Amino acid sequence: MDDFYEGLFNSDFWWYSYDTERWSRNPSDRSQYDYGYVNGPMGGTWGINWEKW
């Protein structure tokens, strides 16, 4: 299930992996990332990959 809106006001979502200690922009497979954030035109938000916790 994808909890993040993608549409007219969509912005790039950046995801971070503790394993690789790297950020990635809009990865197609988010299962390897721990958390992410977006700072778009309507404000910012954080996302957590609950499968990793």
Overview of the molecule:
The chain has strands at 14-17, 22-25, 35-40, 43-48. A four-stranded antiparallel sheet has the order 2-1-3-4, with no helix packed on it. It has one domain (14-52). The protein is an all-beta fold. The model has no long low-confidence stretch (mean pLDDT 82). The chain is 0% helix and 38% strand. It has no helices and four strands.
**Could you tell me how far the N terminus lies from the C terminus, measured between alpha carbons in angstroms?**
16 Å
Radius of gyration: 11 Å
**How many DSSP helices?**
0
Low-confidence stretches: none
- Mean pLDDT comes to 82
Major sheet: 4 strands, antiparallel
Strand content range: 35-45%
Tell me the series of helices and strands, N- to C-terminal: EEEE
Helix content: under 10%
Adjacency order of strands in the biggest sheet: 2-1-3-4
Shape: elongated
Number of separate domains: 1
Number of strands: 4
Secondary structural class: mainly beta
Summary of the model, kept short:
This protein has one domain (14-52). Helix content is 0%, strand content 38%.
